[in-house]
């Protein structure tokens, strides 16, 4: 049984970060609709979808911490039984991450003119989605922290596949952009800026996803 600090501490800090990043996403969404008014309608609907899912996700995360720390504060159930809304976390995460990964796979296909890399990214994105759904079902059925190890396979499938997709996305985007270089200074400078942005943003996601699955495998009896 994990200690209260290792059980609720990482979860609470994670919810703090998630809420801060949600505020950032709301601002980014506003800027997007102000700047890219000529984008295809389905891309705009996709942005709305992501905002809607992240709004639900943030609400579920807050509820996930409110139950054990307020409603069930000081009771044995708080440290024994997982919060009801914890089961929603894997599902909401893959509804967001897998959708974004599939979208980027489509972008990679356009840039690379190849179907192999997008197919690989899509495979890992769909596998991650299946793992996330399986984890949600498992947490709903097996809701005692002490028994969470019984569905390690579902969690590893979810996290490892997502990490693999993010790593491949970053590498394939950089490779595709490098092939777009023309030899003209102005064009290449612009492409180099996009490459730097891709590495900076893509690597954050890829490294975070890799650390996620690594911490899950290495550190037991904690929610790090």
Automatic annotation (TrEMBL):
Protein name: DUF6534 domain-containing protein
Membrane-crossing residue ranges in chain numbering: 12-33, 45-66, 81-104, 116-142, 154-178, 199-219
Keywords tagged on the record: Membrane, Transmembrane, Transmembrane helix
Occurrences of domain DUF6534 (ranges): 162-216
Pfam families, per the entry: DUF6534
Highest taxon above the source species: Eukaryota
Xref: InterPro entries: DUF6534
